[in-house]
Amino acid sequence: MPRRSLADLAPGDLVDDVFLVASKQSRADRQGNLYLTLDLRDPTGNISARVWNVTKSLADSFESGDFLKVRAKAQYAQGITQLVVSHLEAVDPARLGLDPAAFLPKAPVSIAVLTSQLRGFLKSLDDPHLKALCDAFLMDDAFLADFTAVPAGVREHHAYQGGLLEHVVAMMTLASTVGELYPEVNRDLLLVGCFLHDVGKVRELSHQRGFDYTDEGQLVGHLSLGVSMVEEKLPLVQRLLGEPFPPETLLRIKHMILSHHGTLEFGSPKLPMTPEAVALHHLDALDSKLHAALREIRDDPDTASRWTRYDPKRNRRLFKGSAPPAAGEGEEDLD
Q: Residue limits of the HD/PDEase domain (predicted)?
């Protein structure tokens, strides 16, 4: 029996299928009874779920990244369709013949196309030192496999397989225009900053069964991990070059990685202090924030409303306005 698309569920529909637990939160109601808030995924999308009056043993029987056999009923609450779960149990997807990767969201653009675009930007570098540094990363098959699969974030922008790669390529595209408008900015250095600014996320985030933070990611973070990864490549870079890597160039790259969040309160230990670092911070913010806003408008479940739901993180709603006419709608028949 084919799996029903989650987008087609209507209030009252019954669900009996296997889902990936994308996130899990244990909470207590006003009477102190334990309940679970889940974000469940299947190959067609994701949906929120509630499990009321659970025992601690049931709550402890699974974690994010596990697979559950779920029986539930769809209901409409707070402007969205969600599941109220009556039964769940942890299952092994391999025993059921399921591919865990099929349950993870994927970039809308082909990974092969994005990887080709990344290589094209890096091939265009004129600086031999910067080109050798990038080659040292591209020659590492294990790194490249992770870099092209990891999301840019767990829940915010580009939260899907290949999301980091898509984010980096978008930033590189913007950086090329910046280089044309501002010739004082070192285009090669800015492109390399776009490539490496989030490189530490290949160690910060896990992506094989759901998206979550690794222990290393929680304790160290991708800014520090990114600097460490650059330093680890230096012996190979120097062998490729046949000479030492320029100390000031290395310093500028480390500074871009450490300062790209832009402000101390957002995790950067240093403020951007070079033209390339300033540009990198704003390119990162532009692509990530615009991507998140467009996704929020596109995925808003209340299609009849001209506004998205209120987002407490951003302290606002977004205006959707009227839906654009369908192709051909409103055109005069000239025959």
A: 160-298
